[in-house]
Amino acid sequence: MDDLVQRLSEGDHPVTVGGPKPSMEEFQKRVEDMGYVFIKFTGTRGGTDLGVRVDKSSTNLSQARFAEGSGVAHVEGTLTLNYVKVRCVADIDLATLNGTGHLVALEEVHP
After folding, report:
1. What is the pLDDT of residue 106?
2. Contact (CB, 8 A) for 79 and 86
3. 110: which residues sit within 8 A by CB, 6+ positions away?
4. What mean pLDDT, rounded, does the chain reach?
5. Quick check: pTM over 0.85?
6. DSSP labels for 72-85?
7. Rounded to whole angstroms, how far apart are CA atoms 45 and 35?
8. Which CATH number does the domain housing residue 74 bear?
């Protein structure tokens, strides 16, 4: 398995909302409407900004209070990283747009 995928699959890691213009409003729009968010793993060299297709059935926004900018959004979704299909699991604190997350390796894809 790829080293980066292996490392991010072991335990929880610090994450932040990534993408070109990270803001709470942009994050909310991406989670609820677009179904595609950026989650950045900050503990890697230079950070690893991943584009994640949101799995609405596994994502939980019941603790997220976007209007107040508080609470926690639990986001899950899939992507392919270095030829490995993975599920990204992240809990984002809306007050800071930071949180913790990890990857779950699903299957290797051969180029």
Report:
1. 96
2. yes
3. 83
4. 96
5. yes
6. EEEEEEEEEETTEE
7. 27
8. 2.40.250.10
